[in-house]
Amino acid sequence: MDLLLPLQLPPYPFKITDHDGQLTLFDVIRKKNIIITPEEWVRQHFVQYLINQKHYPKTLIKLEGGHKLHGMPKRTDIVVYNRAGEKILLIECKAPSITIDQKTFDQVARYNMVHKVKLLAVTNGLQHYYCTIDFENSNYRFLEELPDYRRLV
């Protein structure tokens, strides 16, 4: 399996290093080298997409944040905040080999029971889905594309 598959996201010139046969890249959010897995490859590309194409400030992006759901520890792939410290975007990343289906959306919805974020994204690097949540009316609406940060604040 090729870890560095091209994705349906803009390419980015990552600093990739081979450590005894294990590829790592420098994560600009966590400020350290991270082992490249298929899911991490997607996560890193999506972070660069957020920063470079959609103007989300990297200082407001948190990766793999922990939370509890029904007493069980869980990890959220990407959470984006506004300048007031409120969560504005929750992103679930999957490996390109994982099909995005109802099960994937159910996972994000469960995580969002904790976060209560109005904007959700799910990506496997090849397909991307975005939706807004209307908590008051208990429904959601899919979006054609992810809103630019400047439109959200």
Structure overview:
The protein has 153 residues and is an alpha+beta fold. Helix content is 22%, strand content 37%. It has 3 helices and 9 strands; from the N terminus they run βββαβββαβββα. It has a 6-stranded mixed beta sheet with strand order 4-5-6-7-8-9, with helices on both faces. The chain has a 3-stranded antiparallel beta sheet with strand order 1-2-3, with no helix packed on it. A hairpin with a 2-residue loop joins strand 1 and strand 2. The mean pLDDT is 88.
Sequence-ordered SSE layout with sheet pairings:
Elements: E1 16-19, E2 22-27, E3 32-35, H1 38-52, E4 61-69, E5 72-81, E6 87-93, H2 102-115, E7 119-123, E8 128-134, E9 139-143, H3 149-152
Parallel strand pairs: 6-7
Antiparallel strand pairs: 1-2, 2-3, 4-5, 5-6, 7-8, 8-9
State the end-to-end CA separation.
Answer: 40 Å
Count of helical stretches:
3
Strand order within the widest beta sheet: 4-5-6-7-8-9
The helix/strand class is: alpha+beta
Shape: globular
Low-confidence stretches: none
Rg, please?
A: 15 Å
**Element order, helices and strands?**
EEEHEEEHEEEH
**Strand coverage percent:** 35-45%
Helix content: 10-25%
Mean pLDDT, to the nearest integer, reads: 88
The major β-sheet equals: 6 strands, mixed
Number of strands: 9
Any descriptors?
single chain; alpha+beta; six-stranded mixed β-sheet; three-stranded antiparallel β-sheet
Short characterization:
It is built from 3 helices and 9 strands; from the N terminus they run βββαβββαβββα.
